[in-house]
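Bug report (template v2)

What were you trying to do?
Predict the complex of my protein with adenosine-5'-diphosphate.

What happened?
Run completed; filing so the output is reviewed.

Input:
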Amino acid sequence: METLITIKDLNVAYQEKPALWHVNMSIPANSRTAIVGPNGAGKSTLIKSIMTLIKPISGKIDIDGKDVRHALKRIAYVPQKGEVNWDFPATVLDVVLMGRYVHKGWFKRPNRQDSEIALDALKTMKMEAFRNRQISELSGGQRQRVFLARAIAQNAEIYIMDEPLQGIDITTEKLIIDVMKALQQEGKTFVVVHHQLDTVEDYFDHAVILNKTVIAQGPVEAIWNESNIEKAYYEMSGHHD
Ligand SMILES: Nc1ncnc2c1ncn2[C@@H]1O[C@H](COP(=O)(O)OP(=O)(O)O)[C@@H](O)[C@H]1O
Ligand SMILES: [Mg+2]
């Protein structure tokens, strides 16, 4: 498999406290990659580093062999739930249209074609009936659908999502996974922080097990085993029964 995202010796700290050290990673193009690890493992830090939202101490992040800064338009980012202000006055359609600004710049008004693309994306996520609803009124699952619709409207090649299945209903979970698999068929790549251990094999084909550094990475069938999971969830935290 061809490598899409390459991370070389990434080191990140918050006020001197290390969050990620010596992270080396290859994420294959057209994969559904899960990033898995305990709370505080640095999963969100890793994702924010890829999105250039955090300045690392050192390290290199490339997309197709070039600095990630050149590829940000190709990436759609769905942040972790708590990091988004949902009281912001905006309709569902407004939020999805934001996906179009990546291509147009912030000063051009969206045109009819942008609206059609946004509505199509809402249809894919079965949210078109909610298009004029305020986002503050939506449930957790509906908000996650809207965010995925925005990413689809962006026509991104790479979807980076931080715990998109956290705190949502099972119908939305199944829909997100179905859409992810369908978009993979169209050539898209997914990098998803995933908090459920029991669904990794069903939902993903590649995985990175992380706890401050990479414990294991590779095809799910090769690396998803008890020994690697224990290393990440028990040994590294100093917890032994
Ligand atoms: N903005 C921040 N300032 C200081 N420490 C932070 C900040 N963000 C995260 N951390 C710390 O860095 C570590 C990794 O956090 P995070 O990347 O959010 O982990 P995960 O997403 O795997 O739960 C944790 O110990 C967390 O407390
Ligand atoms: Mg996190």
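What did the reviewer find?
Residues 3-237 form a domain with the Rossmann fold fold (CATH 3.40.50.300). DSSP finds eight helices and ten strands in the chain.
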